[in-house]
Amino acid sequence: MKPIKVGLLGIGTVGSGTFNVLKRNQEEITRRAGRGIEIAMVADLNTERARELTHGEVEVVSDANLVVNNPEIDIVVELIGGYGIAKDLVLKAIANGKHVVTANKALLAIHGTEIFKAAQEKNVMVAFEAAVAGGIPIIKALREGLTANRIQWIAGIINGTTNFILSEMRDKGLDFDVALKEAQALGYAEADPTFDIEGIDAAHKVTLMASIAFGIPVQFDKAYVEGITKLQGIDIQYAEQLGYRIKLLGIARRTSMGIELRVHPTLIPAKRLIANVEGAMNAVVVHGDAVGATLYYGKGAGAEPTASAVIADLVDITRLATADPEHRVPHLAFQPDAMSDLPILPIAEVTSSYYLRLNVADRPGVLADVTRILADAGISIDAMLQKEPAEGETRTDIILLTHQTQEKNIDAAIARIEGLQTVTGGITRIRLEELN
Amino acid sequence: MKPIKVGLLGIGTVGSGTFNVLKRNQEEITRRAGRGIEIAMVADLNTERARELTHGEVEVVSDANLVVNNPEIDIVVELIGGYGIAKDLVLKAIANGKHVVTANKALLAIHGTEIFKAAQEKNVMVAFEAAVAGGIPIIKALREGLTANRIQWIAGIINGTTNFILSEMRDKGLDFDVALKEAQALGYAEADPTFDIEGIDAAHKVTLMASIAFGIPVQFDKAYVEGITKLQGIDIQYAEQLGYRIKLLGIARRTSMGIELRVHPTLIPAKRLIANVEGAMNAVVVHGDAVGATLYYGKGAGAEPTASAVIADLVDITRLATADPEHRVPHLAFQPDAMSDLPILPIAEVTSSYYLRLNVADRPGVLADVTRILADAGISIDAMLQKEPAEGETRTDIILLTHQTQEKNIDAAIARIEGLQTVTGGITRIRLEELN
Questions:
Q1: How big is the CA angle at A178 (ends A176 and A184), to the nearest 5 degrees?
Q2: Structural class in CATH, domain A347-432
Q3: Which residues, including other chains, have CB under 8 Å from residue A55's CB and lie 6 or more apart?
Q4: What's the pLDDT score for residue B322?
Q5: Closest by alpha carbon to B128, among B154, B104, B110?
């Protein structure tokens, strides 16, 4: 059987990783797929570099349209990124009847509905394992491995940059700014780290996972997104003293009222396996009603880990390309005519536990005032840490961990507490999830 | 489209779990599969109990042949266990053109080659996600999620009973016998726990994973199997002092000389994620050349976790049943005509690091004798722990951690050390893997 022909759009880090792994493991991959997988054409603006990276073995063009319009190409791999030209090219490839593999979470999180619809109409597959958690086969696990389950929640460390920064802050007692600079120097953070540190990248990924888990359309605009830029070292230390770690989690949870979809720094018990995922590593916990909690861990970025996911999609498509389109695996795990319209809840309706840090006057009655306000709001306290004032200081920190409540309740209570004369400045509030 | 019809052979724990989950999540599973999945017939010797468990909604028979010969049945789920009648029924179902789902690792580890060959000839699928690590989709990850990779090694905690016992021994300082009794009382170990505690169950599972990872035939008879029955609490404590945990691991590793396939208690660094997998939980680390290390964690047993895997296979088959047989996922991940004949190495040829515990006279020169023997054998020492003799004692324990060497070298060195007059009794030897 003649090899399936692949066209690569963009040959940067992931593109050259894909080229190299396909070449190095060609024999083994063919033994698995039953058919060769050949990169037949590469489009990149820097044609010279593209020719170098592919050792002159592949046709290189600067115009990506030549790839998506080439009738010889069976599968287009989009590794350009962003939503502009990448979107046009993906839609053109689909219109031309080509299957698409992409690592572009931003594109799918924002334009996924349009793209999957187009693919459905043309009976082609759009595969995106590489878009979430790099080399970890989490999309496959959610879409195929856990099909028996009513998924209850997902919580993932799905951005390596921020996990590296948080690990460094905790390990070395660094402040955010210092840890960020270190991450940049080591290549774990980009020169403009906004997408990572503001939680946007993680929100793209959890949006895609939520769709697959719950059978809902892709709705990035409804996600609540909070990054790690305001996180202080002192809170990481207090959390530790209380038995918790702080991680940037992407969380999607099914509730009776709708779906929670949110990214924010989160306290999690230090004894949970996911709390011990350090450095730039990724991990996702998926909780299903039958299977309970399962966890998937690995490298979430990098040339070859991401290439591993791209190539797994290529093999899947090679295997499934001849199958009846109605019996292939649905793009979003559920059949397109059987999607759910469960609403995404606004953050005010979300339920969580909370870590609160208050700076208060070291004076009798202060704690009573605070706990009274919480009790009035129906919020109960799970744990408390009160520090002795430093030598010569008259003020001190109080840390409270609350039981679960709705975000609007804690917002109201915080506003009242901030109104107390004995409380200085703003209250630091970090969400807390037990993940059990 | 009319539902796909499933016949269940045996309705014990996993069978009733499968029935219950399929029923409870029927709507969601159908939305995923695009077609209903219906248990149409159940065979069990205890027909009365089978009728109770299925609430009179399903035809119940005592003769399993009525299921495998029923032309209405599309998929047979074998949950009888063992290699006798289960094997006959699976082969009959295949001969009758039915797809098969089984949780029977013993059957596949021993008769897999024959069964997969029969399935290949009849163009039917044999799926066995439930045979390894319960609800964790590890077979799918290995067979489909990591197809880009040359798999280098797999190491798994794939027997919940022994992991529970080892966790209890470490946590509570229990001896093996006491921890086993506790596990039995809590339902984590069977009345006859031989298969679990002797490592046989884990060996069945790692044999299957090795086949899928390396594209080799199923060869349980070549696996090295050592259980946890001889493990002493003192070694768990010494290991801990040196920064290690002891786990029963199933290990499969590719080397230049062949494949290592082995189950035995293993020291692993306490900081590894898998070292922190406690109680009856399972976890598997897979190391691929492109992706690096990935880890999969979850419940390895129980009614609904195992049912989760059985049903995932049912959905896969429902999706793939209409596809061209040559383009389905191969049973053992590699195309049947592209299997490898890499040999499985005898344990003497295996490479490992070692933990050695010696009881020695507290006298000058003893350690020099021991280290001289190791040096002569080309074995270098990575760490050492020497305990002070207890009050009034003249003997003490020395613990050595070695660098990597072949098993036959350490065997020879141990024999020489045991010949020293200053060394009392046998030397305790436990393998050690860094898993990095």
A1: 100
A2: alpha beta
A3: none
A4: 75
A5: B104
Q: Which of A240, A287, A271, A252 is nearest to A399 (CA)?
A: A240
CATH superfamily for B4-127 is NAD(P)-binding Rossmann-like Domain (3.40.50.720)
- How close, in Å, is residue B314 to chain A by CA atoms? 9
Tell me the residue type at A229. Answer: T
| Mean pLDDT (whole number) for A177-194 | 95
The mean pLDDT value of chain B amounts to 96
**Does the beta-carbon distance from A31 to B289 stay under 8 Å?**
no
Instruction: Name residues 201-240 of chain B within 8 A of A (Cβ).
Output: 215
Cα A42 to Cα A38: distance, rounded to the nearest angstrom = 11
Picking from A319, A116, A284, the residue whose alpha carbon sits closest to that of residue B143 is A319
Instruction: Report the CATH fold assignment for A138-299.
Output: Dihydrodipicolinate Reductase; domain 2 (3.30.360)
Is the domain B348-432 a CATH 2.120.10.30 member? no
Write the pLDDT tens digit of every residue in A253-267.
Answer: 999 999 999 999 999
Q: What is the domain partition of chain B in residue ranges?
A: 4-127, 138-299, 348-432
Distances (CA, A) of B207 to B103, B149, B202: 14, 19, 8
Check if B4-127 and B348-432 are the same fold: no
**ipTM field:** 0.96
Of B17, B297, B338, the CB nearest to A31: B338
Name which of A87-96, A170-179, A323-332, B427-436 the model is least confident about: A323-332
pLDDT at B257 over 80: yes
